[in-house]
Amino acid sequence: MSAVMRPLRLLLCLLAAGALSSCGGGGDFSGDPELPDGYKTFETTGISFAYPGDWQVSERTDADGAPALEITPPEKAQTPYGLIQLIVSPRAGDRFERLVDQVRTVVRDVNHGKIESDEEVDVPGSRKAVRSKTVTPPGRGTDPVEVRSDGLDVLRDNGDVIGFSVAVPQRDGQDLDPAPIVESFRLAG
Predict the structure, then answer these.
(1) C-alpha atoms less than 13 angstroms from C-alpha of 122 in its C-beta half-sphere
(2) Residue 151 in contact with residue 165, Cβ under 8 Å?
(3) CA-CA-CA-CA torsion sign (174, 22, 70, 33)
(4) How far, in Å, CA of 117 to CA of 162, rounded?
(5) pTM here?
(6) Looking at domain 2-29+44-187, which of 3.30.70.3090, 3.40.50.10320, 3.40.1000.10, 3.30.1490.20 is its CATH number?
(7) Ranges 24-28, 30-34, 45-49, 109-113, most confident
């Protein structure tokens, strides 16, 4: 049980720090995704998605072998900085609705953020998937700025819960669009 809770605590801590929130708004999650130029594909445990090719991948597994992943830009002098995060909570499907509600509560009540969209989407290989877009006002960091996030909360057919999020600080010169990353998300099998 504690191994299942660690990913939730990590997700909530990152949300509380203002670096992460969930995402949203349509998209087709079937077929071969379109990858933007210069992007690579990350794959793990039947999950794949695109990410900027020069970003750094940090992957770990918990005691149950579930992946937890953070992908960050090479330049991290200014915080907050961009973040792509994937967290898998094995066999947490019976808590899916509560987990989704908890993340939304942290965005609204802890980070004083706004949920701009929150809608169910069709992700082949899932029982349920919710895409949401959020915006968190400037908070902590060396260069506090608004952070926009786009992501998915997915209940896999096997009962695992997946949290996938792309957080982008809103700075001049920032050119990362989270939508193609989120829309490249695929489940295999």
Answers:
(1) 4
(2) yes
(3) negative
(4) 19
(5) 0.83
(6) 3.40.1000.10
(7) 45-49
